[in-house]
Amino acid sequence: MNHHSSGVRTSYKLAETVLQELRKQKAIDLTLEFRREDECLIIPITLSEEKTLSLLEELEGDFEVKSFTFTQKEELPKNLFEAVKEDIPLALHSNIPKAYDLIGDIVVVDISEEILDYKAKIGKALLSLFPSISSVYRKASAVTGETRIRELELLAGEEKCETVHQEHGIKIFTNVCKTYFSPRLGDEHKRVSDKVKNNEIVVDLFTGVGSFPLHITKKKEVTVFAVDINKIALSCLEKSMDLNKLKGKIAIIYGDCRHVVNSLLKADKIIMNLPGKAQEYLDVVCQIIKPEGIIYFYQFVPDDKPEEKIKQILEEKLREQNFSIKEIISFQKIRESAPREIHACLEVSVIPDST
Ligand SMILES: C[S@@+](CC[C@H](N)C(=O)[O-])C[C@H]1O[C@@H](n2cnc3c(N)ncnc32)[C@H](O)[C@@H]1O
Question: Quick one: average pLDDT of 318-324?
Fold first, then answer.
């Protein structure tokens, strides 16, 4: 059945960016079919045309918002549970994943052992739930090794690992198979970048694909030194630097931060997002931090008294370097990293003990 409704017509080139913005606002009308014509995608929307225009006003490229004719969709499942419940025995329903990571146009899902036999059905269902998704992978190992990557197994769609993810309007080029990337850190990247002031020197010791530096230099006239041991992650960062208009500068440094960070560098702020191991690199930090400089120290800590625990780990290692915490500026719970464990950040200023 045909239906008149507001929609966005966009070139294929801009379609992914438009879709991500609309998805964030839950503005796509999922009851209507998308249309494709003349190298353009026409996306039905639930928001008013006026609101949609203001939502998309910062996008550069070819799109228009007006009324189109759409075809009503057949009643589709609303979520993964509804899409696969008929295929999976009732006794196993509690194992159907409730969450998954959407990274650009790739979905990464964690499927428990109990329902691994149904992984192909889950992959296919996720692919059909998201019209703009090209690939569905499952987590096939834990995050391991120095580069903090995990094995992924393709369940449905195209065998491709590279994609561009959007976080608060910033385009992040990533390779889900060969770099660490979590879409759950977007708010944290923004939180930290909002605190940086123009002309500061920032060092991101474990930058991965450079999300912190991209967020910071998008808004501020600063230099961020982005260090990582994973060459592929840094080549993703280089690509992102071309995709975004940045006010500041990013200096990429490849290698183990213990060996490649120049001790002549003096930093106002140092970001240490390598939970579990960050404390082993406080000697590097203490060599390059300005007096009263600020550290963003990340750890996985028990959810019982997490602030005390993270402070204890940091203080103990700072003491070995003859440094102390001057002031605790903030404590941030980021996400649950395991049952009864959280990924947290302590923001502190530090001083050498002699001053
Ligand atoms: C948790 S991930 C980075 C996350 C990233 N900061 C973000 O917010 O998305 C940790 C990163 O540290 C890098 N790494 C591990 N040991 C390192 C070292 N000794 N020197 C430099 N980078 C290192 C890994 O390659 C990985 O990309």
Answer: 97
